[in-house]
Design goal:
Elements (H helix, E strand, L loop, with lengths): L1 H51 L2 H7 L3 H4 L1
Length: 69
């Protein structure tokens, strides 16, 4: 009856709160890892940028000829 509906609504509310908390924690962890990775990548690339130049972008988009053949 009514108590079962109330219990179901309460369960759904708690489950959605838990799902939102899990999604927020996952997003925060992924965002933090991405920030750390990008910062370390920028620091590593700052040393190599004079050597590599603009070839880096084209290498990311298409494989070299040895891999393509």
């Amino acid at each position: 009856g009514a108590w079962r509906r109330a219990a179901a609504l309460r369960f759904l509310r708690y489950r959605s709160v838990a799902a939102w908390a899990t999604a927020a924690a996952t997003f925060a962890a992924a965002f933090g890892a991405l920030a750390i990775w990008s910062i370390s990548g920028v620091r590593a690339q700052a040393d190599q940028k004079s050597e590599i130049g603009s070839e880096e972008l084209s290498l990311d988009r298409q494989p070299p000829d040895a891999l393509r053949s």
